[in-house]
Structure formats: C-alpha cells, structure tokens
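[Target chain]
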Amino acid sequence: MLSIASALFLASLTVTPTLQMAPKARPEAVVRAGKARFTVLTPRLLRLEWSKSGAFEDRASLFAIRRRLPLPAFRTWREGGWFHLSTKALHLRYKPGTGPFDGENLEIALHTGGIRTVWRPGMEDKGNLGGTVRTLDGVNGAIPLKKGVLSRDGWYLWDDSKTPLFTEKPDPVMGMPWVRARPGREYQDWYFFGAGRDYKAALRDYTALCGPIPLPPLFSLGAWWSRYWSYTSEQFKDLIRQFKEHGVPLDVLVIDMGWHLKGWTGYTWNPKYFPHPAHFLAWVHKQGLKVTLNVHPHQGVGNHEKAWKAFAKAMGKDPEKEKRIPLDVADPRYMRAYFDILHHPLEKEGVDFWWIDWQQGKKSGIPGLDPLFMFNHLHFLDAGRNPAKRPLILSRWAEPCGHRYVLQFSGDTWSTWASLDFQPYFTATAGNIGASWWSHDIGGHMPGPVDPEIYARWVQLGALSPVLRTHTTQNPKAERRIWAYPEPYYGAMKKAFLLRYALIPYIYTMGRKCYDRSIPLCRPLYLEHPFTEEAYLHPDEYYFGDDLLVAPPVTPLEKATGRTVVDLWVPPGEWEDWFTGERFKGPGQVRLFVPLDRVPLLARAGAVIPTSPGVTRTSQIPASPLVLEVFPGAEGGTELYEDDGISQAYISGDYAFLPLRQESGRGESTTLTVGPRRGSFRGMRKTRDLEIRLRGVLAERVEADGVPLPRAKDAEGPCYFLEENPRRTVVRLPALDLSKKHSFLLTPKDPEQDALVRCVKSMAARLLDAAAWTGEEGLRKNAAAAEQALRLMEKAGPTETRKMAALLEDVLSTSAQLLSLQQPADPTARKARERALERLSGVGVALALVTESGRPGILARARGFAGEEAGRTPCTLQLV
C-alpha cells in the first residue's frame, strides 16, 4: 500500500512517456531571504538561487526535473543580519542584501556522512572522485574525467544557471515538453550536494532530483555482435548460424552504417546488401535476436532517400526543387517528421532500437542545447511511446543527466593495451554521475595490433561489465568471431561468454537495484568502503554488484610465466575465487597469477548468486533451471529480481522478488531459505526447477522442508549428489513452487576435511606452477608428488589429508629454498624463478594451516602469525 504522501507525490508528476517530471517544489520546502531563494530538496541537497530582479525559475531544466520531493525536516531563523537554514545534515548561513552568492556572504556547514567541513562559493573540489566524459573517440590510454557527484571533500556543486529549460506545456507538434533557452538575466541557480562520504546517499539524491536510471530490457544484457562492415543479409544469416554451431550465446545483432544508401547519413535500405529487409529482419527475430541500426543524423535528409518526398512535404518544401533539408534538432517540425517518416516505418519492418552515432559537436538552434542531448532525449522518449516496449538506445554520453537515456556508447577507442587498461576504471567511475550502463567497443575500434590475447582479455572485461558488445572498424584483419581464433584464445573467450550468460539473473537483479537505489552494477571500491584508504588505490578493481569482486587483467601475459600478474585488494571478510575455490580473508592485498582463461573473480562468503548456466539466449532464462551458487562461511543472500524483461510495466509495480538467504559458519551446517516470492508480473511462472550448488562442501545429509533427500544423481524427483572437481554438493529440486517458503539444510560430512582439501589444492597448484615456470628437476618431482596427493585425497580421510597437507607444506618450503640457491643469467629464466618464489610463498599472504600437531604452518610462522589465527581459520589465505 502506498502512503498518502507517496500517492500525492506520484499524482504530482507531469508524465511524459518513460520520463516523469515534477519540477515545482513543494511551497513548504521553499524559503526566500531578500533576493535569494533556497529550496530544501533532501536533508543533504539544497537549491540555491539568487535573482537581481527577484524572479525565480520553477520550470524543469534539462538537469533538474523532479524538485517536488518528500518534505524534509528543517528550520530557519535570522540572527545578526544573517539568514540561517538547518537540516539534520547541513547548516546554511547567508547575508541578505549583499548581492550574488560569493565566498563572503554564503557558507554551508556539513555534519553528515562522517565529514565535518564548511563550504563557501569559489572553493575548489579537490577531492572529487570523477565522473565520466562524452566519448572516448580516438583515445589511446587514459584521459581526465569530468566531475561526478561523489567527493572525498563531502560536497559537490552543480551550476544550473545557464542550462536550458523544458517548457511547461507540451509542444503541439511533438506532444511533449520542448526545450527553451534560459532567460537572459542576472541569475544564479545552483544545486549543493552535501552527503559527506555517504556516497550512496549522494547518488540517491542526484537521481531523486534528476530522474532514475532506467532498467534496460533483459535482452540488452546478452551478447551483441557489432562490426563496421558492409555485410549482406545472407552473410549475416551465415554469421548467426555460426554462433549457433559453435554454441556461442548471442542476443543482439548490430547493423552498422552499411545498411543504407550512399553517404554518412541515410534512411533507405541498400538493395545491394538487403534486397528484402523485412523478410531478413523477420528471420533474425525468429532466431531469438533483436536488431539495431546505426544512424548518423548530422547530414539531414537528401533527395536520394525513399522517404524524400514525404519528408520534404512535411517540412513545407518542394521535393522537386530541394536537394537536401539540413538537420535542425531544435525544430519540433523537423523532429516530428524525423521520427514519423524516417524511423517509424523502419521499426514497423522490424528494427528494434537505434544506435545514434552523433560525433558533430555541441551547437544547435537553441543556446546551450547540445544536439546529442536532444537526440538521446527524444529517441529515448520515442522508443517508449508503446508501454509494452521498454525504451533503449545506444548513444554517446551527453550532459546533463545522460543517465536517463540508456545505454551509453563510449565511442571509437584504439585497439591497444593502454585503452583496455583504462576501461575498468572508466566504467566503474562513471557510476559517480549515474552513467551506469556503458557499452565499450570490445576489442577496440581504431586500427591497432590484431592481437588474439588483447581481444581475449577485452572479451573477459566485457563479460564482467554492463554490456558485452564486440566491435571494430573496417579492418579485414580485425577478426571479431571468437571461434576464428586458435586455442587457447577461443576457449578463453567462449568461457567468458558462457560466464556472462550464467550471471545474467544476478546482473539483472543488480540492474533493478540500480533503478531503485542508484547504485551501479560496476562500483568503485570506495563506494562500499568510503573510509578505507586502500579502497581509493585500486582503480582497475571494482565490485560487480553486491557480492562479486572483479579485477580484469589489462596487461599482457608474462613471457616468463605465461600468466598475467594482478595485485588485488581484498575487502574485509572472506572471499572465494570463483574458478579455483581458493579462499582469501581481508582486508589486505594478494598477488594473483592469472592464466589466459581466467579473470580474478571473487565471491563474498555468504553470497547466494542466482545463475542460468547453459543458456544461449536471454529469452531462455525464465524456463531454464534456476541455479544458486552458494558460498558458505557466513550469513548472506540476495533477492532475485524478475519481470517480463521487455515492457515498462516494471515502473508501475509488475515485478517479483524471490528472497534467497543462507545461514552458515565454518564447520557448521548450511541452511538455505528460498521464497516466498513477493509480487507478480505477466508471464510469471509459479514453479521452476531449482538447483543448489554448495561450494567446497561435501554433505552427508540434505533436508528439503524437513524431509531427507535421497543421494542419487539421476533421480526424477528431489535429490542430491556430490562432486569432487569442483568439490561441491548439488541439490536438484524439480518444479519448486516459489510462492511458498522453502528451507534446505545441508549438513557437511566432514568440515575439517573440506577445509583441508581446499588447502591441499592450493598448495599443489603453487607447486605445479613453480615447476612449470622454472623447469627445475627438483620442483618437477615435488609437483609430481603434489599431483599424486590431489588424486589420493579424493578418497582419503581427515588424518591422511592432514598428513598430506603437512607434507606439502614442507615441500613448499624446501622448494622455495631450492629456487633461492642460484640465480640464472638469462633474464627470462631469472624472472621465472622470482615469480615461482612469489607463488610458493604467497606474496602478501600467509597460509594458515592446522597440521597434525596443531602447530602454525611454516608460511604462517614466516609471516609472524599466532597459532590462534592459524587454528581458527584453517585453509584460508590470511591477507597481511
């Protein structure tokens, strides 16, 4: 049930398709002091206006569209010629009658978010953490970013004084509010964000004022094929068949500018490449794919277009006399014809959405109006004219508030390691200004080295970022079909594609959280740890949603090891490597040696990650088994979000959440609760096949709602079974009724054995790596012993496994001593030895191991750990 205040708030919104405006603040939130006016928007957000004429602005600006927010508590008073305004977070002091705001007559004291400071106009925001930029066109490496809302200084100021305004009444031609320049007068219009280091509150305030970050349609989270190449319809069909033959997932087909007739701008199918476009698009849809077309609107409309006569007449021009009608994005008449005559007929043929490729500057017929903003705004609203279809565009970022128009396209970057190295930081930092759905050219666009390794690493980044869209320029050598590359590159890239699709239920859930709470999918570490210095020092590392941590490899494999070295900061708590099962305990740093087919991906202990392994289309997810990856060792969980995936009904309440919660501790049983589902939406399935995968634990007993399950892998009904590689307990529950709450109790057979096995695997992997890198005969023998230990431990009991662990620990120590005896002259061999020593000892970590005698492990003693730590956390990498 909505509260009365919430109902009145919703009723106050001026509704434009997919965009809600409520520009006029509540009268009770507005206070005047001489020629100044102050509006309390939230306890942490103030609007500051000064007008020489005393006339103020209540219309929506391109930045601020929702000033009518719930009324915060505040008080005002006058004292000693000063006007005071105080909320629970801010204290404003202004001296009326002293002219425009400056450092002498206005100050705001912050006492919130762990920060106490005083801001005055003119102060430099030295602690700003950055936001984003319009485009990365032509960028080869790093560039400075514009400011975001988040600052270590605790405040951010947006000057809205010259931002164009939306009209109060809809334009009669377009049927929606249009844009007008600001009146020319002496006027200040500022927005002061003062959330301290409560960064999440700052983002909520930003979107409360400027509009939410929309939830993209489900299909957009799948894989995209994009390449600047003049494909024919038959070549596209063959390409799509190849995806299917190789089992590589795909959801979106991007058709670049070769689809239309001559020139940079075009709206007519080229019959040379697409003789029957409607039939082709229908065939593509039958394969379960969506289609987007590239459009460059800069050159207007020429007389070679199929729609030329209709367009010219709509513009009041003689089609026989004119040759071209120039673009005028500020003219409602032009834009009405632009959509109705040029775009809508193509959409009727089967085009699902548009890629707006605007690169031509910021000037328009309205002072201060960026054409890119207007294209994004209008295309997004036009795409949402049918409530059954969720709007989507692909376009470059335009200020202000480009977050309202998803998705963002980063432009034509260079295909180099330097470009790849910049993108993890760029992607995560962009969330500081709401740009949460960046799509990069995976592999790079501009000519560069056609290197299979860099492409594989870029694909891995794409798999663990908002959008996975491959692309390149018209370079015949720049292959983007992953199966065209030899092993190990193809295998590494396909593994990344499959991982992406498995994680889509989790990603979509985080997308809903982004819409509700403005927290991006890819988050800088400091968003979760604002007072931890280390969280500001690892720009290539980010949270991927609530419970996953990613550090994409962005440098080449080392010649000496065949691995990429990644130094990772692990946040507080225990974290498990998604691929190896190795455990880390933070806070602290660890050095990882990452092979080509892996990326550092850690899951928080206590996490329950909803997945959909095995699907190759996002449309297959609702009917596929829901697989829960459960990482024991702490309490935790999430709420799986679902809706119809395609309509705007999620905005009005058509969706469902499925609670997923685990309670477990080291050496204890794990209890997992699922449901009951809350909410509903069209097409929702009441039942679903469920699979639980309890990581690193072999259970001897599993109960479902109090009933013991049989241990049988091929049973038709509910059952469970055990697997050794990877080590886990798998529970299968067909046709589970999700409208009810279910409880599952998994009791481990031998918790100590589970922990020791993880330990032995970690040590054996270190020995095998060191032997492979150095070629030392002694290490080869030790590695052979490690492999034997791995085989034996599958059937060994705790006593035998404990002995193996103690033996391997001693082997690790003697192997390290062996490597330190001599230093080869060859630089590569010397580097291999250095890396092998790091791998054996664990740079920045100590292996806490309970041996048979209960003594701390050799490595633990070497790092000065106490026996208590070693005993409490067996087989966990302790970070120092």
